[in-house]
């Protein structure tokens, strides 16, 4: 059998690092009010180095770029990067190519926690109340799914997916029930739209926590890339080299749940990014996590920036929740993966 040839990882990373600013730029310049490529970069340059360029653009254009579009586009990049990173790690951790934060119920758990705190008006920790609730919900959902799927001592693809679907449905129904029973119709309507997954209304304050979380989790998981490579071969192999499988799995569960919870808190549940991007990364650079993690992360950032751009423009002046578009892309991809695995089986 011929071995699949992969591209050099540094080349792929370099290309994606070049493509990402281009995608971000298009995300800024395209919209109901068109802004030229030159003006966009002049405005940004003026903010980075005041006085570097003469401000010949209108105040309205500057506000659109800096207040409305730039924070939204950057948040899309952060959320896409984080979801792709989480998906890549979860697929290895449960040794299942169909694993995804949405399919495993992790996003639904985070959504339920966030909805519960939002509707109840719990603000004990201020701006961190919703992310903390989303993290706890994501972690609880992941542990429940994993426990259900391992009943009988063996983790199979069908059992994992079925457990994830059941838990996701139960938690989604619970979140909907909380929204319906809310005595605050305005809050309920806002939360209901948020549950479809979207980035509308993004502000600079919403960007800091997700960015720090994704960077920290990426560094921590990147430091465990070698252990993740061993984990692909099974718990026995990991134990054979002195790695505690249960302890390592618990650590990664906490990190992935933390990232998912924080991301869902600011964007709502956006599905299939964590399913598609890791597989595309492996097709490009192979299965070594030292290459997969950075490539999948950059792919996720580029993909969600472009998906959000499409969500804002396809039905203009109306806006499509970006979660709907990612699901329309992800569902055929999911079916293709199932058929591919069935042929291999």
UniProtKB/TrEMBL annotation:
Residues spanning the signal sequence: none
Entry membrane topology: Multi-pass membrane protein
TM segment ranges: 12-38, 73-90, 102-122, 128-148, 160-182, 209-231, 251-272, 320-338
Gene source species: Nocardiopsis mwathae
Subcellular location: Cell membrane
Source lineage: Bacteria, Bacillati, Actinomycetota, Actinomycetes, Streptosporangiales
Assigned keywords, A-Z: Cell membrane, Membrane, Transmembrane, Transmembrane helix, Transport
Main localization (coarse): membrane
Single Gene Ontology MF annotation: transmembrane transporter activity
Matches recorded under SUPFAM superfamilies: ABC transporter involved in vitamin B12 uptake, BtuC
InterPro entries, A to Z: ABC_BtuC-like, ABC_transptr_permease_BtuC
Superkingdom of source: Bacteria
CDD domains (alphabetical): TM_ABC_iron-siderophores_like (cd06550)
Matches recorded under Pfam families: FecCD
PANTHER family according to UniProt: FERRIC ENTEROBACTIN TRANSPORT SYSTEM PERMEASE PROTEIN (PTHR30472), PERMEASE OF ABC TRANSPORTER-RELATED (PTHR30472:SF67)
Family in the record: Belongs to the binding-protein-dependent transport system permease family. FecCD subfamily.
Protein name: Iron complex transport system permease protein
Cytoplasm recorded as keyword: no
GO biological process, one term: siderophore-iron import into cell
Gene Ontology cellular component terms for the protein in this record: plasma membrane
